[in-house]
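Would you mind giving me a polypeptide sequence along with per-residue C-alpha coordinates?
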Amino acid sequence: MPSLISMKYKGIISGNCCNSCTLDKNTSIFFNTMTMKLLEMSQAIEERIEQIKKNCNQEKPSDGFLFASIETPQMFITVGQEYVIYLQRYGPPHHGRFDPCKLESIREELGIPAPVLT
Protein backbone atom coordinates (compact mmCIF):
# COMPACT_ATOMS: atom_id res chain seq x y z
CA MET A 1 0.00 0.00 0.00
CA PRO A 2 1.50 3.38 -0.97
CA SER A 3 2.22 5.82 1.80
CA LEU A 4 0.26 9.02 2.29
CA ILE A 5 3.31 11.01 1.23
CA SER A 6 3.82 9.05 -1.98
CA MET A 7 0.13 9.44 -2.85
CA LYS A 8 0.42 13.24 -2.44
CA TYR A 9 3.38 13.46 -4.84
CA LYS A 10 2.11 10.96 -7.44
CA GLY A 11 0.36 13.64 -9.50
CA ILE A 12 3.49 15.78 -9.73
CA ILE A 13 5.66 12.91 -10.92
CA SER A 14 3.20 11.92 -13.63
CA GLY A 15 2.82 15.56 -14.71
CA ASN A 16 -0.86 15.65 -13.76
CA CYS A 17 -0.69 18.08 -10.87
CA CYS A 18 -3.27 20.35 -12.54
CA ASN A 19 -4.75 21.09 -15.95
CA SER A 20 -3.09 24.47 -16.40
CA CYS A 21 0.55 23.48 -15.77
CA THR A 22 2.97 23.99 -18.62
CA LEU A 23 6.56 23.42 -17.63
CA ASP A 24 9.57 23.29 -19.91
CA LYS A 25 11.80 20.23 -19.89
CA ASN A 26 14.42 21.60 -17.44
CA THR A 27 11.81 22.75 -14.94
CA SER A 28 9.98 19.41 -15.16
CA ILE A 29 13.22 17.50 -14.62
CA PHE A 30 14.09 19.73 -11.65
CA PHE A 31 10.69 19.31 -9.98
CA ASN A 32 10.54 15.58 -10.72
CA THR A 33 14.05 15.06 -9.31
CA MET A 34 13.14 16.92 -6.13
CA THR A 35 9.88 15.00 -5.85
CA MET A 36 11.64 11.67 -6.29
CA LYS A 37 14.17 12.58 -3.59
CA LEU A 38 11.33 13.50 -1.22
CA LEU A 39 9.64 10.18 -1.96
CA GLU A 40 12.85 8.25 -1.38
CA MET A 41 13.41 10.02 1.95
CA SER A 42 9.83 9.45 3.10
CA GLN A 43 10.00 5.77 2.16
CA ALA A 44 13.33 5.37 3.99
CA ILE A 45 11.83 6.99 7.10
CA GLU A 46 8.75 4.77 6.93
CA GLU A 47 10.93 1.66 6.54
CA ARG A 48 13.09 2.70 9.50
CA ILE A 49 10.02 3.26 11.68
CA GLU A 50 8.76 -0.22 10.77
CA GLN A 51 12.16 -1.73 11.67
CA ILE A 52 12.16 0.04 15.03
CA LYS A 53 8.61 -1.12 15.74
CA LYS A 54 9.55 -4.72 14.91
CA ASN A 55 12.66 -4.57 17.11
CA CYS A 56 10.85 -3.14 20.11
CA ASN A 57 10.23 -5.74 22.77
CA GLN A 58 6.50 -5.62 23.45
CA GLU A 59 7.01 -7.31 26.85
CA LYS A 60 9.02 -4.31 28.09
CA PRO A 61 6.99 -1.19 27.36
CA SER A 62 9.38 0.95 29.44
CA ASP A 63 12.36 0.81 27.05
CA GLY A 64 12.19 4.54 26.49
CA PHE A 65 10.50 4.53 23.09
CA LEU A 66 7.22 6.26 22.56
CA PHE A 67 5.45 6.20 19.23
CA ALA A 68 2.75 8.78 18.79
CA SER A 69 0.60 9.72 15.87
CA ILE A 70 0.89 13.41 15.08
CA GLU A 71 -1.60 15.05 12.80
CA THR A 72 0.03 17.58 10.51
CA PRO A 73 -1.89 20.04 8.38
CA GLN A 74 -1.64 19.84 4.63
CA MET A 75 0.73 22.56 3.49
CA PHE A 76 0.70 24.57 0.32
CA ILE A 77 3.59 26.63 -0.92
CA THR A 78 3.46 29.63 -3.16
CA VAL A 79 6.22 30.56 -5.55
CA GLY A 80 6.63 34.01 -6.99
CA GLN A 81 6.07 34.25 -10.73
CA GLU A 82 9.61 35.57 -11.21
CA TYR A 83 11.04 32.33 -9.79
CA VAL A 84 8.94 30.15 -12.10
CA ILE A 85 10.09 32.16 -15.10
CA TYR A 86 13.69 32.01 -13.85
CA LEU A 87 13.49 28.20 -13.67
CA GLN A 88 11.94 28.00 -17.13
CA ARG A 89 14.63 30.20 -18.67
CA TYR A 90 17.77 29.23 -16.80
CA GLY A 91 16.98 25.97 -15.04
CA PRO A 92 17.75 25.31 -11.37
CA PRO A 93 19.97 27.95 -9.73
CA HIS A 94 23.67 27.23 -9.34
CA HIS A 95 24.36 25.95 -5.79
CA GLY A 96 20.74 26.76 -4.87
CA ARG A 97 21.21 30.54 -5.21
CA PHE A 98 19.20 32.51 -7.73
CA ASP A 99 21.20 35.08 -9.71
CA PRO A 100 19.95 38.45 -8.38
CA CYS A 101 20.64 40.24 -11.69
CA LYS A 102 18.57 37.73 -13.66
CA LEU A 103 15.78 37.89 -11.07
CA GLU A 104 15.78 41.70 -11.16
CA SER A 105 15.55 41.63 -14.96
CA ILE A 106 12.56 39.30 -14.81
CA ARG A 107 10.90 41.45 -12.13
CA GLU A 108 11.32 44.51 -14.34
CA GLU A 109 9.72 42.66 -17.27
CA LEU A 110 6.78 41.70 -15.05
CA GLY A 111 6.51 45.08 -13.36
CA ILE A 112 7.12 43.56 -9.93
CA PRO A 113 8.95 45.82 -7.47
CA ALA A 114 12.14 44.48 -5.95
CA PRO A 115 11.71 43.06 -2.45
CA VAL A 116 12.68 45.35 0.39
CA LEU A 117 15.22 43.78 2.70
CA THR A 118 15.02 44.81 6.32
Remarks:
- Helices lie at 4-14, 25-55, 81-90, 100-110.
- Confidence is low (pLDDT under 50) at residues 1-16.
